[in-house]
Each structure stands twice: as C-alpha cells, then as structure tokens.
C-alpha cells in the first residue's frame, strides 16, 4: 500500500518537472497585435479583411464566417470551392488577409480570424456590403393620364443599402404644383419622399416628372414619369379681322390649347373644308398642348373675302374660332423725300452800301427777306438819302446816321420810316417845280 502511494507521488512530480522544462524551452504564445479593422465595399467590388498576429511561430491561422459558422480557410488553403475567396500573408506571417471578390449582399457580416492554440484565441471584424440605389419598377408609377382638376398621386419605390433618399422634381425645371392650401397655391421646386401628391392638377402641370434615388453609393438612379392632363379645346384668335389687297397673299391664324391632341380644320364661309393645294397652305406648330394653326391664302380674288373658321375637336369637346377677311386698297408707292438743304450767306458788317449790294444777291439765291422791319427801313432810308444828295449835289455822309442807329436802334427805325414817306411826296413836287421854272423862263 505504501509502495503504491509512493509511486503515484513520484509520477506527479515527474509530470511537474517535465512541464516546467517544456515551458522553459517553448517560445512566447501568439497574440493579436490589433483588432481586425471593419471593411466596407459595394456589391460587385472586392473587400479585404486584415488580421495582424504577433509570435505566430508554428501555429496555424483560420478564417471563419461567424453567422453561418463556415470554415473559409486553413492557413493559406481555401476550404470552400469558391473562386471569389483568397488568403494571403506578408511581413513574415504577421499579417493575414482574406480577399473576397465580386461581393454579394450575403457576404455582409462578421468574420473571425482564429489561431489553433490551446485554448483557441480569435478576433472578429465586420464586413459591410453597400448596395447602390435602384428603382423597384413593380412598385413605381408609370405614365399617368387624368382629367383637369383631378387629384394625382405618384409613387417612386427605391431599394438599396443604406436606404435611398427619393427626391421629386420637374424635368423642365418649373415648380411642382401641390395644389391649393387654404386661399393660397402651394408649389415647390423639389419634393422629398416616396409619394408625390397633387390635389388639383391643371394643364400647366402637364409634363415629365423625375424621381431621383440616392444613398451616397454611386451611381444615383432616376425614373421619368409623364403626366398627361386632358381638357377640351380652347381657341383664341388674335386678329379677328384681317385686311388684304387683291392678288396678294394673306395668312390667317388661330391659337388653341387641347389635350389629347385634337383634330383640326379650316372651313370657308360656304362650308367647304380647306385642304393643302396650290391655293391654300395649312400649317401647324405644336408645343405640348399648345398648337398654332395658320392658313395661307395665295393670290387673293374677290370670292376669297369673307369669313373663315378654325375648328378643333377632341374626345372632351370641340371649339371654333372665326376670322373675317376684308378687302383693302393696295398700298401706293410713296416717293422718296429729298433732304432739305440750307444755304447760309455771311452777313457783312459795314456801311449801308455794302448791305444794299448784298440784298440782290440774297434774293437771287432764294434767301428769305429780312425777318425784321428794322433791316428793311434801313435800306429804304439809305436810298432816300442818296436821292436827296443827288439833287443838292452834296455827298451823303453815312457815318453819322450809322452811329445814331447803333446808339438808338428803335428810334432810328422810326426816323427812317418817316423819311421814306417824305421822299415819296417831295420828289414829284420838286420835279414839277423845276419844270414850271424852265417853262416860264
């Protein structure tokens, strides 16, 4: 009995000694230098998870998908038959990388880097797989047709990870009419949300609407939805009476609005529907629900004058517009007006003889007569003085009157006028007196 007890204690002591010797000879245990960094990549791209280990020595490294408990690799050997997976190492087996190409949404989750020590040690890292936005066609509105003043609700369903943000806007850049709110009309350039609700649409709301989905992962996506608003035709005639001359061409016009697009025609006052031919030319210019109708009548005759009617008709109703064509006289040719020319004759300041000599020249060139009584009275008074000097045989002194005239121009004019009257009556009397003296002598 004592021998057995002694043998047992001896065996335990030997184990202790061997363990101590083994611990003294074995290297340091492996450890993780840092946590596994989380990784993020988009669907279809490649993701890389990094595991950094100190003192790995002869131990082995394995990668495991945590949620499915799937062993992906043992050291550098990939276990599943998945060519998307690859394991590499570097820096003297210190860094271990798990590569996953062509990512799928199912690859999202936690991954474990494990070392086969006793007990086992491990670190976890998270792989986030993002998904660009996409439009869910089956849950998204298609083109819509409604009557004017109706309610409209459009939906744009988007998918993606993170959850996409949906924004509505008009393709033409105009504001979105949300409808009346109280006494005011509510309109915005952009509207956010899965639904776009419009309480009372009008013809101005017709057009293309874009829903744009984005979540920060390129590319953003959009869906184009056409809104058609139906209403009966409306016609406006800008010129209800048009005048034209015989043998000329004339254009009659009507502007109409209608949706759906109406059937249009021009009808003459005798009920004849006009068609394109050598006499008539019918044209239309359409801009969305607006249409500009024109009728060109060539080489007008007497029978062409009268009333014309533009007609538009669609499923919601019809409308007419009237234009009256009247005859006017042809325009006469207007002679070209010549530009008036003005001649300027310099005025010479000097004696009255110079002024007297200039007067005939001015009249010869059509220059107007003096525009004041003063100029005319001065010229007449100078003639009177010359006649008086010739009778008396004395020389007329023109300097003195000229000085008086410059000093008192108004009085000089009156004096010259009176002298004129005296000269008209004194000359005949003097001649009669001379004749009487000669006869009696």
UniProtKB/TrEMBL annotation:
Q: Which domain of life is it from?
A: Eukaryota
Q: Which UniProt keywords apply?
A: Cell membrane, Disulfide bond, Glycoprotein, Immunoglobulin domain, Membrane, Repeat, Signal
The cellular location(s) given in this protein's UniProt record come to: Cell membrane
The Ig-like domain extends over: 30-130, 133-222, 233-329
Give start-end of the signal peptide: 1-24
> Region (Disordered): which ranges?
347-420
Where is the sequence biased in composition, kind Basic and acidic residues?
373-386
Q: What Gene Ontology terms describe where this protein resides (cellular component)?
A: neuron projection; plasma membrane
Ranges of compositional bias, category Polar residues? 407-420
Q: Can the keyword Disulfide bond be found in this entry's annotation?
A: yes
Name the predominant localization. Answer: membrane
> Protein name, please?
Ig-like domain-containing protein
């Amino acid at each position: 009995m004592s021998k057995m007890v002694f043998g047992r204690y001896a065996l335990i002591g030997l184990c202790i000694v061997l363990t101590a010797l083994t611990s003294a000879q074995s290297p340091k245990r492996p450890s993780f230098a840092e946590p596994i960094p989380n990784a993020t990549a988009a669907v279809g791209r490649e993701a890389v998870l990094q595991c950094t280990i100190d003192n790995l020595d002869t131990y082995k490294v394995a990668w495991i998908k945590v949620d499915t408990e799937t062993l992906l690799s043992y050291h550098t050997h990939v276990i599943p038959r998945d060519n998307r997976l690859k394991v590499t190492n570097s820096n003297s087996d210190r860094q271990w990388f798990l590569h996953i190409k062509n990512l799928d949404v199912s690859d999202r989750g936690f991954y474990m880097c494990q070392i086969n020590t006793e007990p086992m040690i491990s670190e976890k890292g998270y792989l986030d797989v993002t998904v660009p936005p996409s439009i869910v066609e089956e849950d998204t509105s298609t083109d819509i047709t409604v009557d004017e003043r109706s309610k409209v609700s459009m939906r744009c369903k988007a998918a993606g990870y993170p959850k996409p943000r949906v924004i509505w806007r008009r393709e033409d850049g105009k504001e979105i009419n949300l409808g009346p709110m109280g006494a005011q009309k509510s309109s915005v350039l952009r509207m956010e949300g899965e639904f776009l609700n419009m309480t009372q649409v009008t013809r101005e709301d017709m057009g293309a609407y874009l829903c744009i989905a984005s979540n920060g992962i390129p590319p953003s996506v959009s869906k184009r939805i056409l809104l058609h608003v139906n209403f009966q035709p409306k016609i406006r005639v800008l010129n209800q009476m048009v005048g034209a001359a015989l043998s000329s061409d004339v254009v009659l016009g009507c502007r109409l609005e209608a949706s759906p697009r109406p059937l249009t025609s021009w009808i003459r006052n005798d009920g004849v529907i006009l068609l394109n031919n050598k006499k008539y030319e019918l044209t239309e210019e359409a801009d969305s629900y607006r249409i500009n109708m024109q009728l060109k009548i060539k080489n007008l005759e007497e029978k062409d004058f009268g009333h014309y009617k533009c007609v538009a008709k669609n499923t919601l109703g019809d409308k007419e517009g009237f234009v009256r064509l009247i005859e006017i006289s042809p325009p006469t040719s207007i002679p070209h007006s010549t530009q008036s020319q003005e001649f300027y004759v310099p005025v010479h300041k000097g004696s009255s003889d110079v002024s007297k000599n200039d007067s005939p020249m001015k009249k010869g060139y059509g220059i107007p007569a003096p525009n004041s009584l003063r100029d005319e009275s001065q010229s007449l008074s100078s003639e009177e003085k010359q006649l008086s000097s010739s009778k008396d045989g004395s020389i007329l002194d023109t300097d003195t009157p000229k000085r008086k005239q410059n000093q008192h121009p108004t009085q000089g004019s009156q004096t010259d006028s009176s002298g004129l009257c005296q000269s008209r009556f004194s000359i005949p009397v003097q001649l009669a007196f001379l004749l009487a003296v000669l006869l009696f002598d």
